[in-house]
Write a structure and sequence with these properties.
The complex is a heterodimer of chains A (110) and B (83).
Chain A: H1 2-29, H2 33-59, H3 62-93, H4 103-109
Chain B: H1 2-22, H2 26-49, H3 58-81
Classes of the chains: A mainly alpha (110), B mainly alpha (83).
């Protein structure tokens, strides 16, 4: 039982770390700030949730699991808020070439 | 397995730092700082599992909160300063 949980925890840790690597590749390769933000915001959140699940499966004490749950909930709450703040600031201050219609600019012009 | 996860996280951190150094605009640097802090949170969580590393889980909480506050302040900085 303990060995199986350790194995599952290890797999979750590695998959979570791979999501962080995916975010790094995305931020490195994509061409404009909004695409980079898309890579830098979403996949580390899923990666962190997986890593906290893996750590909880490995540590298995009540205090650790409580703290790690708090970390996961906190990241799920703060990551969209922070990304929204940055996206708003970038949209206001940086001219990013867009393929289609810039809907926020169009709505604000009315 | 823990060491493999730590190595992958370090590689991701190197990619974020590379974008932070190159990034044409201030916005790219701020975005990569945000992602870099998320990667550090992941790395500290992995390190807290490793026996004998001396890292406790409460450290993760502190890093996560300070990362969010830092991102919010940097967003305000872009709004005031421009590009």
């Amino acid at each position: 039982m303990g060995g199986l949980l350790d194995l599952l925890g290890g797999v979750a840790l590695i998959v979570g770390a791979l999501f962080a690597l995916l975010a790094g590749i995305g931020v490195h390769k994509f061409r404009d700030p909004f695409s980079r933000m898309h890579a830098a915001a979403k996949s580390p959140t899923l990666g962190l949730v997986l890593v906290t699940i893996g750590a909880a499966l490995r540590i298995r004490t009540f205090g650790a699991i409580a703290t790690l749950t708090l970390v996961a909930i906190l990241q799920l709450l703060t990551s969209p808020v922070g990304t929204h703040l940055v996206a708003r600031a970038v949209h206001l201050r940086v001219k990013v070439p867009q393929d289609g219609v810039d809907e926020l600019e169009r709505d604000e012009a009315v | 397995m823990i060491d493999v996860a730590l190595a992958i996280t370090s590689l991701a951190a190197v990619l974020f730092v590379a974008r932070m150094l190159r990034g044409p605009a201030l916005a790219d640097r701020v975005i990569s700082v945000d992602g870099f802090v998320s990667t550090i949170v992941i790395g500290v969580t992995v390190a807290s599992v490793r026996p004998g590393s001396g890292v406790v889980e409460s450290t993760v909480l502190v890093v996560a909160i300070s990362g969010f506050v830092g991102t919010a302040i940097l967003a305000r900085f872009i709004e005031r300063r421009g590009s």
